[in-house]
Amino acid sequence: MHGSSLATRLFLSATAWVVVILAITGIVLSSVYRNATERAFDRRLNLYLRTLIAEVATPDEPPDRQFQSLGEPLFELPLSGWYWQITRTDTDKPEVRASRSLWDKKLPKLEGHGADLTAAGIRLGYVDGPEGQNLRMVERPVDLGGEGKFLVSVAGDATEIFDETRSFDYYLGGTFTALGIVLLLTTVFQVRFGLAPLKRISESIADIRSGRAERLEGEFPVEIAPLARETNALIDANREIVERARTHVGNLAHAIKTPLSVIVNEASAHIADPFATKILEQADTMRDQVAHHLERARIAARLTIIGTVTEVAPVVEALRRTMEKLYRGRDIAIGVEADPQA
Fold first, then answer.
1. What pLDDT score does 138 carry?
2. What ranges do the domains of the chain cover?
3. How is domain 6-166 classified at the CATH fold level?
4. Distance from chain centroid for Cα 8
């Protein structure tokens, strides 16, 4: 496909739209999946948060049995990325209880990172944890009245979210790449199929020029049917004009032949007169020209090819005879070497 062709323009415009649409769709789907993964992770954190709040609200539980119902071994492994922390905030010196995984570290407060309370009374956000870990954290202030005020926090390793999202983006990119290739191949097929009638018109016009056809034949789509119709009308009009011109040329040649014959007869009767000799010479030239144009008119009438087609040898031979008559007195020899098939 050439750069200036209609097929190229259609293909490039379709390719641009496919790329733009797939890119926008990919970004939207990736964002939706990330949000869904994040919400699922937050539900898990909220489950642990509610369990911890329930433990705080039942202080009569023996210390060795408190916070045993979380059911997550990662809270027991040091610096595992999963932590919980309970801070009493209504005392002069905050009392802090934390998971074994937090070791001797502390979790930061989301309030200090600009996170606001949601309608559910919790704060959510990302924080930097121990060992530079990226944590997804949820915290909730709890007021138990006389039992005290607490800030309950649960954090989990956000690498899970990022890995899930990255894996989804990888498969999404591969899928969309394959889909884009299929769409582009489909576009190529559609462009070629849609422009096939135009190619058929071009081939039909070539057939008309070569004489294999006289008109554009066949059914065409409604969008280009007027083009085919007007092209046929133009061909018919041109053919009529050429036919009229050929008729006029033939009539003119025949009209000249009779007076020319009279002139030749009269000049032949006075052959001894130099003036008559000159008239005979020019009359022969005129007769050759008339015969030449009559022959061209007869040949053109038999041809169906649009254009000028003639045999080389007869034309060159006629030119030779004419040149010999014009330069008869100059002792010039004129020869012709021409392929009879040319």
1. 94
2. 6-166, 225-310
3. Beta-Lactamase (3.30.450)
4. 8
